[in-house]
Specification:
about 240 residues; three-stranded antiparallel sheet; 9 helices
Length: about 240
Amino acid sequence: MAEHGLSSLTALVEAIRKQPRSGLKEAVVDAMTTNETLWFRDNHPFRILEEKLLPELAAEKTVQPIRIWSAACSTGQEPYSIAMIIAELKKRNPALVRRQVKIVATDLSGRVLEIAKRGEYEMLAIGRGLSRERLAMHFDEVDSGVWKVKPEIQRMVEFRPLNLKDSYALLGKFDIIFCRNVLIYFSADLKTDILRRMHATLKPGGYLMLGASESLSGLQDKFEMVHCRPGIVYRAK
């Protein structure tokens, strides 16, 4: 409000309505959204990806690319973490990643998507969950204390703007969806709507990965719970 010379919240809302292309709405979105993230968050989802999901997909008799969606990707740590797991597994056991892997990462905030696309992080961000071994393996130091994701990791990820309340039709179908630590901010009805539409974007037998404090409720007709000890994933029926 101060930046745009507006005296009240009502005036702010009215300005957004009158000037939808002014960039004001996007500025409000950037100011309001929670962009908490770190590398390999909670760890077990990435272990499940490496030890269970990717081997299952490798066993399928198809040459179609493996497609993974990182929803609400913030500044890119989650999709890049996924890409690193895939690159490491491919190096150790090429047979498990013989198909091309495409990662689509989406977020509502244009500001965080620009950071994610650049793939450059200062040491404060690097230190949140990234080991020294992975820093050396997957990053180049481009400035004092600034590290950039290597091109082969960046090429695996496509970043797109998306509000989870909007249509997913243009995203296509996925084998795996990571939607972690975002549904907790939505009402019960909106959460159910989002999960039903995510189910529609999953291929039959595809997997949904939620955050540690999140769960499905009332959607037993769409998903079955799979215990991985530790961790839980949901398989699309």
